[in-house]
Amino acid sequence: MTDPPRARAPRRDAAANREALIEAARVLLNEDPETSLDTIATAAGLTRRAVYGHFPSRNTLLAELAERGAARVAAAVARATSDDPVVDVALLGRLVWDEIEHVRAMTRMVVHGPLRERIGPALGLIHERLVGDAARAAELGTGRGDLPPEVVAHLIEGAAFTVLDESTRAGLSRVEGRRLVILAGLSALGLSWREAQAVLDTHRALLDEEAQR
Amino acid sequence: MTDPPRARAPRRDAAANREALIEAARVLLNEDPETSLDTIATAAGLTRRAVYGHFPSRNTLLAELAERGAARVAAAVARATSDDPVVDVALLGRLVWDEIEHVRAMTRMVVHGPLRERIGPALGLIHERLVGDAARAAELGTGRGDLPPEVVAHLIEGAAFTVLDESTRAGLSRVEGRRLVILAGLSALGLSWREAQAVLDTHRALLDEEAQR
DNA sequence: GCCATCTTGCACAACCATGTGCAAGATCAC
DNA sequence: GTGATCTTGCACATGGTTGTGCAAGATGGC
């Protein structure tokens, strides 16, 4: 199980370079999801060749990046829950948003690309919670009862992606994005815009900085 | 202005082949937006080499395909209007949906890719109409007043794309897709799910086959 | 049937990626 | 300082794409 005894400890700068690569990838893939390894390596202050000293393939690097993000999202999602399904949808929107709004393009790429399976668990967590919320909200009569919970969950998720795009286009601030993702999500859940606004008014913490810490 | 006198009329099969290419591109690009020219040509019963007898470049072919689609959508959109902005949004959803539900992937690719400028006019038509509807609906109090009309229009458009995905995933029929795109659009406009349903109940023609002919 | 009009088949250039091999150098641990 | 641990720089293989050139063949117009 343990590695064969090393003659010497690994160099510290190597670990730093590895991080630099991941960080550069995060930034660049966000601007262009198809950025080449060469571009990423250069941005990290390395050569393309050196990358292969840290990752066996380009895809491995992307996978690690995706999994780190997924872990962060999963942790965030576990941070808070609400018994009221409507509030829970809003809460979920806020929690996820704070984790992904700065990696918009990456999110699109990972969720809708072949790397999706790498982040399945985190996605599943969110999805199942949304499905549950949609079902309970429908029972309570506070959420839409005209569509299957599964479909409603997809609509909410889709609305979040729309807000990601809109956020880029309009240059929304973090808080504006939060508000929009919550409003769009609640609309998809079937609330009228006044009802959605009422939820925000009642639960001010949804928009507060670091409210759920 | 007139072409230099031809020694002879162009061959009929050539024109047919040109159409076959476009048709094959339509079908294949729908399954995979990055299908190669070779694949398209073969599917059309031609060689890759022959394609260059009809189109100077791959992009030219895509552009023609996109422009044809845009023209169809623009024509459809002009087919009907409603004075009630809420109904107009539903109507728009239905009209556009019927034109694009069978070219889902293409739509995504064209709207969000570099070919977008080729279809600017058609897109602009829809967008402006949605913005107008959102503004009027907000004034009337039937649509959301918490977001700028511009943003509301984007939410509605985004909802339509979400339904495109959902339609593929769940294998929705044409009519089911219509219903869903309308419901999702009206939700984005700020209606509660019961209000949206009421719109559908009042305007049965929205779901009828060939209602707006 | 003639001949212009496509179409084919093949070769080729160019581009742009990823991934490897290897020798020489820089850097850090000890 | 010594030596293992990275990093570089280069060459090269591989695989994919688009776009061209050109001769030979098939097809349809007149």
Structural commentary:
The structure is a homodimer of 213-residue chains. By secondary structure, chain A is mainly alpha-helical. Chain A folds into two domains: 12-56, Arc Repressor Mutant, subunit A; 68-206, Tetracycline Repressor, domain 2 (Orthogonal Bundle), CATH 1.10.357. Chain A has helices at 12-31, 37-43, 48-51, 58-77, 85-100, 104-112, 120-140, 149-170, 174-189, 193-202. In chain A, α1 packs across α6 and α5 (85-100) runs antiparallel to α7 (120-140). Chain A starts with 11 loop residues before the first helix and ends in an 11-residue tail after the last helix. The model of chain A has no long low-confidence stretch (mean pLDDT 92). Chain A binds a DNA duplex (30 and 30 nucleotides) through α1 and α3.
Please write out the topology.
The structure is a homodimer.
Chain A: H1 12-31, H2 37-43, H3 48-51, H4 58-77, H5 85-100, H6 104-112, H7 120-140, H8 149-170, H9 174-189, H10 193-202
The first copy, chain A, binds a DNA duplex (30 and 30 nucleotides) through helix 1 and helix 3.
Helix content of chain A: 55-70%
Please report the number of helical segments of chain A. 10
Structural class of chain A comes to mainly alpha
The domain count of chain A comes to: 2
CATH class of the largest domain in chain A: Mainly Alpha
Q: What order do the helices and strands of chain A follow?
A: HHHHHHHHHH
User: For the terminal residues of chain A, how far apart are their CA atoms?
Assistant: 38 Å
Oligomer: homodimer
Largest sheet of chain A: none
The residue ranges of chain A in which pLDDT falls below 50 over 5 or more consecutive positions are none
What radius of gyration of chain A results from the CA coordinates? 20 Å
Q: Hey, roughly how much beta strand do the residues of chain A contain?
A: under 5%
Q: What is the CATH architecture term of the largest domain in chain A?
A: Orthogonal Bundle
Q: What overall geometry of chain A do the principal axes of the alpha carbons give?
A: elongated
| CATH fold description of the largest domain in chain A | Tetracycline Repressor, domain 2
* Strand tally of chain A: 0
**For the residues shown, what is the average pLDDT of chain A?**
92
